[in-house]
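Encode chain A's predicted structure.
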Amino acid sequence: MTTPTLETKYVFTITAKIGDVVSAGETGIGVRRIIPIIGGEVTGAIAGRVLPFGADFQTIRPNELIDLEARYAFQTDDGATVYVENKGMRFGPVELLQKLKRGEPVDPKLIYFRTVPRFETGDETYRWLMEHIFVASAARHAGRVVIDVHQVM
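Encoded structure for chain A:
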């Protein structure tokens, strides 16, 4: 017997609008940054809006490897609320990461930005979000983060 082959299927995109970065400074393991999530939209197999609360909590390591942990929620067009906990990493050439920090455009293909979102909801229509593993490819732009969510089949 062999194990099932892993495949992924694109499901939806979360575009999270972000506020100004707050820095807690160097903590001994890196620079702690907090980026407020202030809204956005969900498009694809699920449609809705990102609720205007939550944040992305980041640690920027000395080698510019960025550990990310975002916690926020979205509301679907049919009224369900879905909590999101999204952990991942962003890494790339130092000069390009510095450009991103300054809000300058960088080709997303040049930055490795991957996450593993987990979802919680009490709405039966979206219970399948809690019954599957998801992975995502993301891109940071000025004022927003775009996250393409894929279901692992």
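The helical segments are 94-101.
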